[in-house]
Specification:
With about 270 residues, the protein is α/β, with parallel strands linked by helices. The chain has eight helices and nine strands. The structure holds zinc ion (2 copies). The site of one zinc ion has 4 residues, from loops.
Length: about 270
């Protein structure tokens, strides 16, 4: 199975998952995980999409917390469970995001850019009439704007995940094309004392690189970055801890001796 902690996963409390929390936890126990952190989606002002109305991905934090605490009690002797969130960033909702985080008690916050200029690159329609390279550049620019404006998070989510949805996947993706932009992004994350979500979804979806790719992970380390968490981004039990068997080798190849888990917003370091 690989590493024993999955720190990016969703349940039915996220708009795009139908998996009961219990089904995720029981699968985690079956896999031998020691800890799991739920990171349900909260994306304020999500734009209208082909299969979703505008304003989707609003987290009902109260029912999420209730369900989480009930399950934490039930499974307390079998697995260590944590209450997190994956917060969608957009430049025009910074104060709403700040308020949302301040009034809740999340133990771990992944900040992610899912939307570029009010549109969602998840859908094929987005890529029509645009080169993949142009979209990648737009995505990194939007990401940089977002993390210059919003600081109350622990790790930055799936940094180059937009590549997963390009019509030709990573065929037109070369990190060297965005060197200055990516360096500024990584330096901002490091200067703010934040980490990266090493996200394995692309690996178990048939791609060769995780998000972010090895080259970005290496650069983050070179620039002084130390904090990485490992997450499958599973939305169903069968994806939990997906390709975690590859991660020790992959991360040590990129220069990391330790990965992190979080409790109460504080990082704990674990040797690979
Ligand atoms: Zn995400
Ligand atoms: Zn996610």
């Amino acid at each position: 199975m690989g590493l024993p902690s999955d720190f990016h996963l969703h349940s039915e409390h996220s708009e795009d998952s139908t998996a009961p929390m219990k089904s995720m936890i029981e699968k985690g126990i079956e896999l031998g995980l020691l800890s799991m952190c739920f990171t349900e989606h909260m994306d304020i002002d999500y734009p209208e999409c082909p299969d979703l109305p505008a304003g989707s991905f609003i987290l009902n934090t109260d029912s999420y917390r209730r369900d989480f605490l009930a399950n934490k009690e039930i499974y307390k002797d079998r697995i260590d469970l944590h209450f997190g969130v994956e917060l969608g960033l957009q430049p025009h909702i910074v104060s709403e995001n700040i308020n949302f985080i301040e009034k809740n008690d999340f133990e771990f916050i992944i900040a992610s850019t899912h939307i570029i200029n009010h549109t969602d690159p998840y859908y094929p329609e987005f890529w029509k009439d645009k080169s993949d390279k142009k979209v990648f550049e737009e995505y990194f620019k939007e990401s940089l704007t977002n993390i210059k404006l919003f600081k109350n998070y622990d790790v930055y989510g799936h940094l180059d995940y937009v590549v997963r949805y390009a019509p030709e996947k990573d065929a037109n993706y070369s990190v060297a094309d965005y060197r200055d932009l990516l360096d500024e992004l990584l330096k901002t994350i490091i200067y703010d004392g934040k980490g990266l979500d090493l996200n394995t979804k692309a690996l178990y979806s048939g791609m060769k690189e995780p998000n972010p790719c090895r080259s970005i992970l290496k650069r983050y380390k070179e620039l002084g970055g130390e904090i990485i968490t490992i997450g499958s981004d599973a939305h169903k039990p069968s994806d939990l801890a997906g390709r975690f068997d590859l991660i020790s080798d992959l991360a040590t190849e990129c220069g990391f001796d330790y990965y992190c888990t979080f409790a109460d917003r504080k990082a704990a370091y674990h040797k690979f």
